[in-house]
Amino acid sequence: MNAFVLTAASARARSARAAAVLAGRGLLAGDRIAIVAPGAEVPQQTAAAVQAAVACAAYAALRLGALPVMVNPLLARAERQGYLDDVDCRLILADAGELLALTDADGPSAGPGAPELAEIPLGRPMHFTSGTTGRSKGVWSGPISEDAARRYWADEHAQWQVEPDDVVLNHGPLAHSAPLRFSMLAFLHGASVVYTGAFDANRIADAIARYRPSVAMAVPTHLQRLLDLPGGGPPESSYRMLVHAGSACPPDLKRRIHAWAGVDHVWEFLGASEGQFSACTGAEWEQRPGTLGRARSGRTLSIAPLAEGDGAATEAGVIWCSAPDFAAFEYFGDPVKTAAAWRRDDAGRAFTVGDLGRLDADGYLYLHGRRTDLIVTGGVNVYPAEVEAELRACPGVRDAAVFGEPDPAWGDRVVAAIVGTATPDQVQEWSRRNLAAYRRPKRIAAVAELPLTSNGKVLRDGLAQWVAEHQR
Fold first, then answer.
1. Any idea what DSSP says for residue 115?
2. Rounded to an integer, what distance in angstroms lies between the CA atom of residue 251 and that of residue 262?
3. Cα 254 to the chain's mean position, in Å?
4. pLDDT recorded at residue 310
5. What SS3 state is found at 398?
6. Same domain as 262, residue 386
7. 96: buried, middle or exposed (CB in 10 Å: 19+, 13-18, 0-12)?
8. Comparing C-alpha atoms, which of 453, 467, 4 is closest to residue 246?
9. Which pLDDT belongs to residue 131?
10. Which of 98, 212, 238, 293 matches a 20 to 30 Å C-alpha distance to 86?
């Protein structure tokens, strides 16, 4: 296979050389540099090396005090240019050959005139939100002091404990925050990272067999494809810590992950490009199925009741997270949206990304969905994430997405798209036995697959139209 193994020492040396070149091209501390990770156009034999080069280029910029803007390579050219025009970067790295040359291990070493580099990344890369419900927003943390940067990365290390003898297997695109963050943790703490290019279950299985990785961060969709490989599934797990996030994990898949990797080695977290909310061990989930754990260290979770007029009273509300000062962010160029995302509370400043959920008596968080996804039918709130979780428990349903469509009598009615071997009639019959009438889908459409973003989330913007065009 064409995997690329990047040690922390190599990443450090490559980033120093790259930083010297970038500084020579006029990149200064506080500047923005766009890194468009090349996508499907890169031949597979070099894709893993290009992925490693992207990580090293971002590392170089951060050590220089510049802020990398990570752009999704799957965007159409016009969409990509729109984001770049919005952000106004001093430099743009978008060519695979340029990235490989910039971070070449055999390139000239940084000489006496090289810029002074920080020991740690001075901040967070700018990532764009997943865009599941519309145009992605740039999450901007700006330049931060070295003290704040040290506290930020110490906080991440305290949670995930990546150590020098670890081998981290990269599953996801580096345009998303968690995969790049785990690479940075590896570089900072002496671990190695294995890159395989764009996700492919067979390549990941080969990497597990060959390199025996101890740490990985993945999305549930990737893990399902890995476990569903023909011929008995993936090799025996070597993970001491397998972390997943990014989208809801169906209970049956969750238990398969636990059985393969070991319940004591699996973690799940609720986070977003904006910040981190909670973390949950596999054992906690088994004791409280469906939970996303308790607040991460240094954070406090609270639930704000829905405003009057949002439907019937419910114990669910908007999830707010009081976060440390080094976790502050804004939506780039959008002060109105930024102001709506933050508020003051007893624990300090808190942010929300619009998720709805509830806390149990012991502080464990349960997600109900996004406020923008909320369906109000006959004056009653229906949370798509809750109905989706129930539908995934139906025999023959591998995945489900729930949305509302206009109804003259009810305002909106509940509609479900299902993936699997179950027929709509079978799911409807199951729903009659297991779901309250107001939560029961009034229409069920079978589709071969659901539209997903590059990090495995259901693409909800335009979902109703997509289902209408793809139902079987």
1. P
2. 15
3. 17
4. 47
5. strand
6. no
7. buried
8. 453
9. 54
10. 98
Domain membership flag for residue 234: yes
Token pair of 51 as six digits: 């992925």
Could you tell me the CATH number of the domain that includes residue 249? 3.40.50.12780
Point out the domain boundary residue: 226, 258, 273: 273
Share of the chain above pLDDT 70, in %: 93
Residues 202 and 65 placed together within one structural domain of the fold: yes
pTM of the model: 0.82
Q: Where are the alpha helices (DSSP H) in 357-403?
A: 384-392
Q: What pLDDT does 29 receive?
A: 93
What secondary structure does DSSP assign to 267-310, as a single string? EEEEE-SS-EEEEEEHHHHHHSTTB--EEPTT-EEEEEEPPTTS
Give me the pLDDT at residue 312, please. 39
HSE-up (13 A, CA, CB side) for residue 32:
21
Same domain, 406 and 264: no
Q: Pick from 307, 319, 326: which is nearest to 351 by CA?
A: 319
CB of 378 closer than 8 Å to CB of 411: yes
Domain end marker among 215, 242, 273: 273
Instruction: Say if CB 453 and CB 433 are below 8 A apart.
Output: no
CA pair distance 36, 437, nearest whole angstrom: 47
> 155 near 164, Cβ under 8 Å?
no
Amino acid, res. 225 = R
Name the 3-class secondary structure at 396. Answer: coil
CA angle 451, 218, 365 (to 5 degrees): 85
Please give the span between the terminal C-alpha atoms of the chain, in angstroms, as a whole number: 37
Do residues 53 and 172 both lie within one domain?
A: yes
Residue 393: helix, strand or coil by DSSP?
Answer: coil
Please say whether the beta carbons of 354 and 371 come within 8 A. yes
The total number of structural domains that make up the chain: 2
| Gap between the Cα atoms of 416 and 450, Å rounded | 11
Structure tokens at 467: 């289902």
For 17, the token pair is 């050389």
CATH of the domain at 437: 3.30.300.30
187 lies in which domain range? 4-273
192-240 tens-digit pLDDT: 999 999 889 999 999 999 999 999 999 888 898 999 999 889 999 999 9
319, 273 contact by CB (below 8 A): no
Query: Which two tokens mark 277?
Result: 């909310």
- The answer to whether residues 72 and 214 belong to one domain is yes
Mutual orientation of helices 220-227 and 251-261 as an angle, nearest 10°? 60
Q: What are phi and psi of 17, to 5 degrees?
A: -65, -45
What are the residue ranges in the chain where pLDDT is below 70? Answer: 1, 39-40, 76, 78-79, 108-113, 130-135, 307-314, 370-371, 379, 409, 454-455
Are residues 130 and 246 located together in one domain of the fold?
Answer: yes
